[in-house]
Structures are given as structure tokens and as C-alpha cells.
Give the backbone structure.
Amino acid sequence: MTITITAFERSPDGGKGLARDTRVRWALEEVGQAYQVRLVSFQALKERAHLELHPFGQIPTYEEGDLALFETGAIVFHIAERGEGLLPRDANARARAITWMFAALNSVEPSILDLVTVKILERDKPWSAQRLPLVEQRIRDRLAQLSKRLGDAEWLDGAFSAGDLMMVSVLLRLRASGILDEHANLAAYVARGEARPAYKRAFEAQLAINAAKPTG
Ligand SMILES: N[C@@H](CCC(=O)N[C@@H](CS)C(=O)NCC(=O)O)C(=O)O
């Protein structure tokens, strides 16, 4: 059955791979599943046809026959469950990999998104300069915990899993801030994720869409 995902017609990051279709593409590439992409403009995101697929008017979405999904956590989990290689067969190891997916989305990503909010969306607010160090400290505290848990391991829990895919995707957004490099093991962990052939294919595919387009 054909799988169709949605992505920005023109990603605000100009192809750095930070838009969330990249993590869905990566999961599909890891399991060797072909897919199509429907590009959506910012205006179309908020129109009825797209809102029927995604109640919050965002990308990515995932369609497969009469199944339509939104939220990258749910989409990557679905891909991982149907395919091979992203979730261990052993029931306990599988549950732990799923735990890391939730941890990436619920315990690590929120403060990283706050950083983007305070630096970009709220930068002209009078309290923005005061808020920034608080947000950065929250990220540093969480990264210190994550770094300690990862230690010298290659991946978070044994073999590479959907939990690593999600954690690397979330941490990638931090690279420009320099905060990621404060923990050599986390920086190397993210680099290992990016070095995976499946990630490279996903990255190149989104870049091919965005690189050719002038911004503004
Ligand atoms: N929690 C959602 C977040 C989706 C999201 O924020 N998508 C962004 C692109 S990465 C978007 O569509 N932004 C446009 C908007 O919100 O209007 C997920 O993980 O899928």
C-alpha cells in the first residue's frame, strides 16, 4: 500500500533537516519502506482538507490506505511496529525502546523547543533576555542526566532503536546553540545517528526539496 507523508513546501530551516518530516522519512528509510511526499504550503496547513488529516494544522502527516496519522511519535511508532529493525523483538527491550521514544518527546524535546521560542518568537519581548538563561539551564540539566545515562554506550539501550531515532532527532535541533557540544558523548551519539545511511537518505530527500528554493 502506498504511504504518503506531508512536508513543508518550503521549510523555514531551508533544508537543515529540522522539520519533523525528517524523522518520519528516517524511520521509513530504516525499515526500507518506500513513500511519497505531498508538499503543503503554510496556508494550506490551516485549510480544511489538511485539518481533516491534522487537527492542529501541522506537518507531518502519514497516510496509508484508509489510515491517517499525525504526531511524529505515533507515526514513527507505527512504522517501527510494522517494519523490521526499529523495535527489538524481546518484549522488555521493546518496551524500553518505546520508553526512550516517549522520553525524547516528553522529557527532552519541550525545553529544546522553548529555546527556539525564546530566541526567535519571543526575542522582542522585554522579558526574553531574563528567560533565556532559565531555559538554557533546564536543557543543560536534562542533557547532563542523559549524558550520564548514555555513558560510553553507542545507543541508549543496546541496539539502535526507534528510541534513538527520536532522541537524535530531538537533540539535532540543539546543535546550533553549542549546548550539545558541552557533552562529547551526546555530540558523538548524534553524529552516529546522522552517519546512518538511512538518516543520510532522509536528509538528502528533504534537502532536495528545500535547497532549490529561494527563501522569502
Ligand atoms: N508534536 C508534533 C509537532 C508538529 C510540528 O510542530 N510541526 C511543525 C513543523 S516541524 C509545523 O507544522 N509547524 C507549522 C505550524 O505549527 O503552523 C509532532 O511531533 O508531529
In short: The first strand starts at residue 3 and ends at 8. The mean pLDDT is 96. The chain is about 55% helix and 10% strand.
